[in-house]
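Good morning N.,

You mentioned wanting to compare the apo and holo forms, so I went ahead and generated the holo version with guanosine-5'-diphosphate-rhamnose. This is what I fed in:
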Amino acid sequence: MTTNPTPNARPKVALITGVTGQDGSYLAELLLDKGYVVHGIKRRSSQFNTQRVDHIYQDPHIENARFKLHYGDLSDTSNLIRIVQETQPDEIYNLGAQSHVAVSFDSPEYTADVDGMGTLRLLEAIRILGLEKKTRFYQASTSELYGLVQEIPQKESTPFYPRSPYAVAKLYAYWIVVNYREAYGMYACNGILFNHESPRRGETFVTRKITRGLANIAQGLEDCLYMGNLDSLRDWGHAKDYVRMQWMMLQQEQPEDFVIATGVQYSVRQFIDMSARELGITLRFEGKGVDERAVVQSVEGEHAPALKPGQVVVKVDPRYFRPTEVETLLGDPAKAKAALGWVPQIALQEMVTEMVVADLEEARRHALLKNHGYAVAVSSEH
Ligand code: NDP
Ligand code: GDR
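and this is what came out, ligand included:
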């Protein structure tokens, strides 16, 4: 539904960094629905990397195309200035990032450059082009800022204690946004978002690794899923609910920072259990620490033809432990509810079902190909 107030008014223009990612794709859909012209920055890659937005792609030759992609990178200052100049956005959503916490320990400098300095580069682009009073800025801040938590649940006033190069880079980004708001009167704000997932979640984040891995095992494409810390506790929401809030944050009178969370917490182990049940598999967890594993207790229905009771389908592998772990995160979204009327609409169980159904469909396709003699590579190495 298009909600542009007056049909003849100039449509609002948004620029999204990270448009090819999970959130960027849902946000682009939302803004197109609202009548925006949406510009997105995509990275040059040796293979197509626009799968998440292919369904909303518009041929640039079409007159009045409302979805346009530009090559760019958050590490490239002149490129960012040029894109902001060309697009003259009313709103910038800075979602682009090296967003994997574990990978940030392998690539700390790159993560700092893109996630920290990249934010500064965009804010400076706005300032250099004299757009401080026109362009509103949303920064994808994160619950990882709380790291070693100082208070439960975490709210806007909870002190930060980042525990990874990713979180430290995002801490810089958080404060530079606050500073530019105070120093230059810019409408710039931080959404401190807790983990949010969907069938579009990257395959190496824990929820998607679980739903995809178990679906592959159920269809006989893999034998075992190797996991890190099963005790880790997270507050998981659905990405669709969270991008709605990103837009709402830029429509207020005054820029403010908000915590976005569900207020409910589960362990990685519980997420595994819920996903297995969706596939008709009942699991029993045995052992402790690095020796912990999940064994199939019973199988019902037709989703897991490849499985037998007694089979070990999940094992802990310390290679997925992090040098410093964030053990527990639980958000308090009271401010967002009171000030903006935002409440999440999709519960965890519903999201698990949606993710498992999508991954099972893909696993079935792969199994069909495999059974007809085609080679299928199903890597779960993360
Ligand atoms: P994804 O990893 O799915 O998407 C990240 C996006 O950033 C991709 O489009 C990616 O491009 C792009 N990107 C990566 N590096 C660069 C770069 N150097 N220059 C330009 N773009 C780049 O993340 P999500 O959609 O899950 O998250 C969106 C944002 O929200 C991120 O900033 C993340 O850190 C933050 N966040 C996410 C949370 C979550 O639970 N999902 C919670 C809190 C914050 P490509 O597709 O080519 O890789
Ligand atoms: P997180 O998400 O680090 O919270 O960052 P991730 O899904 O990677 O990990 C969540 C928790 O699960 C534990 N875990 C594993 N994680 C992965 N990836 N793979 C495993 O095998 C595994 N086993 C256990 C992790 O140790 C961790 O405790 C996400 C990203 O989207 C960030 O960009 C975002 O800022 C935060 O969420 C909020």
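DSSP finds ten helices and 15 strands in the chain.

Happy to go through it together on a call whenever suits you.

Best,
F.
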